[in-house]
Design brief:
The complex is a heterodimer of chains A (514) and B (558). By secondary structure, chain A is α+β, with helices and mostly antiparallel strands. Chain A has helices at residues 3-8, 12-21, 39-52, 70-74, 80-89, 95-99, 106-118, 139-154, 164-173, 198-209, 222-227, 253-267, 281-284, 318-328, 343-347, 356-362, 406-419, 462-465, 481-489, 502-507; strands at residues 26-28, 55-68, 122-124, 130-132, 157-158, 184-196, 271-272, 278-280, 349-351, 370-379, 391-400, 426-430, 436-446, 450-460, 474-479. Chain A has 20 helices and 15 strands. In chain A, strand 3 (122-124) and strand 4 form a beta hairpin. In chain A, helix 12 crosses helix 19 (481-489). The longest helix of chain A has 16 residues, at 139-154. The relative contact order of chain A is 0.09. The chains are: A alpha+beta (514), B alpha+beta (558). The interface between A and B is large, with 105 and 97 residues.
Chain lengths: 514, 558
């Protein structure tokens, strides 16, 4: 912006500061005076001027001021050490007696006595009574008392006026970060010398030329409207260059993404399922035909619950039927896994490790035909890092119906790719899941990431559906949401999906289109 | 999911034709594999996802499957014929480690490359398929030094010693378990046994202490060896046999001549009391061709099924419309016809199926609770709250000590904690919001935060020891915030929802006394939440420097 433009939108306060400067080009923020401008307003004006490039800082000095803390104020009539010294001057005393010194609580007295003993000011006599040592140097304690009184008198003392010994005492007795108690408080005040830049001088000239007086109306008020005092006045133009900030209510960007997926799935005819965070191994794995010896069921793959460690009972008739399919296939025509199914193991409680649990639980109550989905929080035993969160969302579901088969499975996945992920190019690949056969993975071509996995699916094995009394084929599907969400949110660390940093959350925008 | 390394030159020898990285990557669909690039030694990395196909966890296995589609399967004649060696099993082994089986291979040239692949296969089979050597452990020996027959028996831990691989001096079995790296790694399998398993030959030379470690004398295989004895032991005979079938076919693919070994048991096994290995497992299934058409959604003929499955390495016979399928002897994963039908679809190629939409109409709808949750979230956002979403797993200290709540109060806790920061399920959302406030002093004030989300409430009476509930928590933080602001917002929210409610002054360690209240539904005595000003002690523990007010309610209760 040119100087005229800047001058046009100066705040009346800025005009007044520039007028008060007169011929000078420098100002000192500690000593500058202009009518109607206090220190706080001056600081504001200086920040504006610095931001516009009209001023620059040429010098900055720190000044340290000492004052007393609440504790310090209570020591004005003597520190605990001095009080003890004063009492002992009247003669030796037993410890218990000394501890009952007026104005001191026992803890304070104890601490003070400790430091006096350490300094050799107090000694224990033959009868264990305490007395002042004859040759002791009491000066440090006396000097501190003197210093406290001096600070109390002046209320606020420039550190530069202290001799080195007193300055050291202030340092030692000041309240520091992490230290609960202190006698002195040190305030740091910065004073600055500022100078008008060449631009600033041009703006000043332009402002003076324009005839702006600094009493333009900044804010129209009801009073001005009532008494008509606005008439004949000019209004300060609004500065478009400054972007005012706003803190406002807002959906979390990750939830905004999850909401989008949920709405999409509802609009495609899916009904939502919800479930429990804690599940039995029975529903989490057995019902999904994962054999109890399966490698993904080990202590290093799922979180087990400490107490109670087991569910009180298993749901029948499902438990018996699931046991049968594991052992010999039950009535499904399957061989089964051919091992002795352990019902105790089924009762072990785990933190839900896969969203498919909800589908397994829903099967026996599902409508046919029916389409269901869940966006469910799941837990995996993983080292938490940029690609592993302690808990995360999985989006899973089922489709039941007479018309379900492998080609409708592919059709459904293609629909997901187009509707949910806006993918144009897709590819199907064989996959393995313990609970589906045939199984398929869908990959999509992402405009920025290239080929990436969108999800996995398959047709539930009869060993999964038969125990639940389902007689029609069932598609089970899952979509990898986190990856899609991270791309939409522009983040590459999965932990940032649940960031506790409000600044980060505020700065994150969701971009659903590429 | 196992990932294996294959040597490109070795692999092409096994294949019998040339293949480059791209062509391999394209064909890996046939084995449910994913090409993971080249490692620093120039080996190709392949990840295999099917945990029921251990036959694919080797260069030989992948090559065998790829060869099948070109009709280049080798004949494996060694599943019949008289055994060339014998293992005698002692009756006591039934309670210790019941199964053993073995075969011989002759005339194979063990090269460096071949040895690396052999060790990799042996390890993948024992670790992944054999459940870390419990179900299957495999040992390989130079057969020329072994005096047949071999005995599989048990001895007392200190009554026998031999020189294990990697050591120079004889050690007792007990010492091996105590000091040998493999002893330390796998001794848990033998825990609680007062007699330990041993393979020993007629001359009294030790082969190994299964499943721990071979002897140096008989069990050290080096490049140049040509005749090997391969044994497997374990708790699952079907797995032991399958692992040996796979090893035998792999070695035959490298030009070895396989000879069977007979194991004689004094007790019965799933395969009788004399088990000759390699042994063909009967994994055959008969499937009507209509099953293929029904599951796949396209019409297929018996001839097509026959041709395609032959190309996948299966032995297929047709009886009218019935397909009789026998998988190769290296596979035991045909549990149900659906497994065969998938192999058909994979071999034909997923791209040959035209996707079609399911034709049924179904109504879509969010769960009732989600509708309520959305309504609540809308109200909160309308009042200027910023939404937060947090992890459900927290540190125990965050939901108890920092909230000034009795640390002994029960919560849903993880038993196998990996990281103390993720050790309990939250039973309240307030700690999550305080955690955000604690990390966000730098973000411009005022802070009005809320989270709607699931918590797990400990409840010994519930069937799973806990109940999952949907909560809403709100937190207000700035210099002059008071509880009345939180009160006004809660009132606005609940009246919007048409809920009749009341407050009852109560004390709660997280809130300042006199500024805390229970939220109840009108006419009910059961609290459904809390409203109050957070106690400065709590703020100090979270290192929060501004006053905070807030509320939390259970949405399921509305």
């Amino acid at each position: 912006m040119n100087p005229e433009e800047i001058a046009r939108t100066l705040h009346p306060l800025e005009i007044r500061v520039l007028q008060a400067l007169g011929e000078q080009t420098r100002l000192d923020d500690a000593s500058f005076e202009a009518e109607g401008i206090d220190a706080a307003r001056l600081r504001t004006v200086i920040e504006w001027q610095l931001a516009k490039g009209c001023m620059r800082q040429v010098l900055s000095r720190e000044k340290h001021f000492v004052s007393l803390t609440e504790l310090g104020l209570s020591y004005v009539d003597g520190t605990p050490e001095l009080r003890l010294i004063r009492r002992l001057r009247e003669g030796a005393l037993p410890v218990a007696e000394l501890m009952r010194t007026e104005g001191l609580d026992p803890k304070e007295a104890g601490t003070a006595l400790g430091s006096l003993k350490k300094a050799g000011v107090v000694q224990a006599g033959a009868e264990k009574e305490l007395r002042l040592a004859d040759d002791a140097d009491k000066e440090p304690f006396v000097a501190l008392g003197r210093l406290i009184r001096r600070v109390a008198d002046e209320q606020r003392l420039d550190m530069d006026s202290l001799d080195p010994a007193d300055a050291a005492r202030v340092e030692a007795g000041s309240r520091k970060r992490g230290k609960a108690k202190g006698v002195f408080r040190i305030d740091i005040q910065t004073t600055r010398t500022l100078e008008l830049t060449e631009l600033g001088q041009q703006v000043k000239q332009a402002a003076l030329r324009s005839g702006r007086s600094g009493d333009e109306i900044n804010q129209l008020t009801p009073a001005m409207l009532a008494d008509g005092s606005w008439r004949g006045k000019t209004f300060r133009p609004y500065n478009l260059a400054i972007r005012p900030s706003r803190v406002a209510g807002r959906r979390h960007p990750y939830r905004e993404f999850l909401d989008y997926v949920r709405r999409k799935l509802c609009s495609l005819g899916f009904a939502e399922m919800r479930g429990e965070l804690v599940e039995s191994e029975f529903w989490n794995m057995d019902a999904l035909f994962m054999p109890q010896f399966h490698s993904a069921r080990q202590i290093h793959d799922v979180y087990f619950v400490k107490d109670p460690a087991k569910a009180d009972q298993l749901d029948e008739p499902f438990a018996s039927r699931v046991a049968a399919v594991h052992t010999d296939g039950g009535e499904t025509g399957s061989r089964g896994w051919g091992y002795a199914f352990d019902r105790e193991r089924s009762r072990r409680l785990v933190l839900r490790s896969q969203g498919t649990v909800l589908s397994a639980r829903w099967l026996h109550q599902a409508e046919v035909p029916g389409k269901y989905f869940a966006i469910a929080r799941c837990f995996r035993y993983d080292q938490v890092d940029a690609t592993h969160a302690p808990d995360f969302y999985q989006c899973e579901g089922i489709v039941l119906g007479e018309s379900i088969d492998f080609v409708t499975l592919l059709g459904l996945l293609k629909l997901f790719a187009q509707e949910v992920a806006k993918a144009e190019e897709i590819h199907f690949a064989p996959a393995y899941f313990p609970f589906t056969e045939p199984s398929v993975e869908i990959h999509m071509k992402h405009p920025r990431l290239g080929w990436t996995e969108l999800g996995g699916a398959g047709i539930f094995r009869p060993e999964v559906t038969w125990p639940q009394g389902v007689e029609v084929p069932v598609i089970a599907w899952g979509l990898g949401l986190d990856r899609m969400a991270m791309v939409a949110m522009g983040i590459d660390d999965i932990r940032d999906l649940f960031s506790p940093d409000l600044g980060k959350v505020r700065a994150t925008r969701i971009r659903m289109k590429d | 999911m196992p990932t294996i390394s294959i040597d490109p030159f070795d692999f092409q020898d096994l294949l019998g034709f040339k293949i480059d990285e791209q062509a391999l990557a394209d064909q890996l669909d046939l084995v449910k594999g994913e090409f993971k690039g080249q490692d620093p030694d120039g080996l190709w990395r392949v990840e295999l996802s099917d945990t029921n196909r251990p036959d694919l966890w080797s260069a030989e296995g992948i090559a065998r499957q790829l060869r099948a589609s070109r009709g280049r399967l080798r004949d494996y004649p060694f599943f019949e014929g008289q055994p060339a060696g014998e293992i005698l099993v002692d009756g006591a082994m039934r309670e210790i480690r019941p199964y053993v089986a073995a075969f011989l291979v002759r005339g194979i040239e063990v090269t460096d490359r071949g040895l690396i692949q052999l060790i990799q296969t042996q390890e993948k089979l024992a670790e992944s398929y054999g459940s870390r050597r419990r179900d299957v452990a495999i040992g390989v020996y130079n057969v020329q030094r072994i005096h047949m027959p071999v005995s599989y028996k048990s001895v007392e831990p200190t009554a026998h010693s031999y020189i294990p691989l990697g050591f120079d001096e004889p050690m007792t079995l007990a010492e091996i378990l105590e000091r040998h790296p493999k002893g330390i790694e796998y001794r848990s399998i033998l825990e609680g046994l007062d007699r330990l398993p041993l393979l020993i030959d007629r001359a009294g030379l030790t082969l190994s202490m299964p499943p721990i470690i071979n002897s140096r004398e008989l069990g050290e295989v080096v490049p140049g060896d040509s005749d090997l004895f391969v044994e497997a032991t374990g708790h699952d005979l079907a797995k032991v046999v399958l692992a040996l079938n796979i090893m035998a076919c792999d070695l035959a693919d490298r030009g070895g001549r396989i000879e069977r070994v007979r194991t004689v048991y004094p007790y019965s096994t799933p395969f009788g009391s004399q088990v000759d290995v390699p042994l063909r497992l009967d994994m055959g299934l008969s499937i009507p061709v209509s099953e293929f058409s029904r599951l796949l959604g396209v019409e297929v003929t018996a001839v097509e099924v026959d041709n395609v499955l032959e190309c996948y390495g299966c032995d297929v016979r047709r009886e009218g419309d019935l397909i009789l399928v026998q998988p190769p002897p290296t596979r035991a994963d045909y549990l149900h016809p659906v497994d065969v039908i998938e192999d058909f679809a994979i071999t034909r190629g997923y791209e040959t199926f035209e996707p079609r939409l399911p034709r049924d109409f179904t109504p879509g709808r969010p769960a009732e609770l989600s509708l309520l949750e959305d309504k609540v979230r809308d109200s909160m956002i309308g009042m200027g709250y910023e939404e937060i979403i947090s992890n459900i797993l927290l540190a125990r200290e965050q939901i108890r000590d920092r909230m000034c709540i009795d640390p002994g109060q029960a919560a849903v806790e993880v038993d196998n904690v990996m990281n103390a920061n993720y050790a309990v399920l939250r039973d309240s959302l307030l700690p999550c919001l305080l955690r955000v406030e604690s990390s966000s002093a730098g973000a411009a004030y005022p802070h009005r935060l809320f989270e709607a989300g699931e918590v797990a409430l400990f409840d010994r009476g519930a069937s799973h020891g806990s109940r999952t509930r949907l909560h809403l928590a709100a937190l207000l933080a700035w210099g002059e915030v008071t509880v009345s602001e939180a009160h006004a917002d809660l009132d606005f929210l609940l009246s919007t929802l048409g809920v009749e409610w009341e407050l009852e002054e109560a004390s709660h360690p997280t809130f300042l006394s006199g500024r805390a209240a229970e939220v109840r539904l009108a006419g009910s005595s059961r609290p459904i939440g809390w409203l109050g000003e957070i106690h400065p002690e709590v703020l100090e523990r979270w290192e929060i420097g501004v006053p905070v007010a807030g509320f939390e309610i259970e949405l399921d209760a509305l």
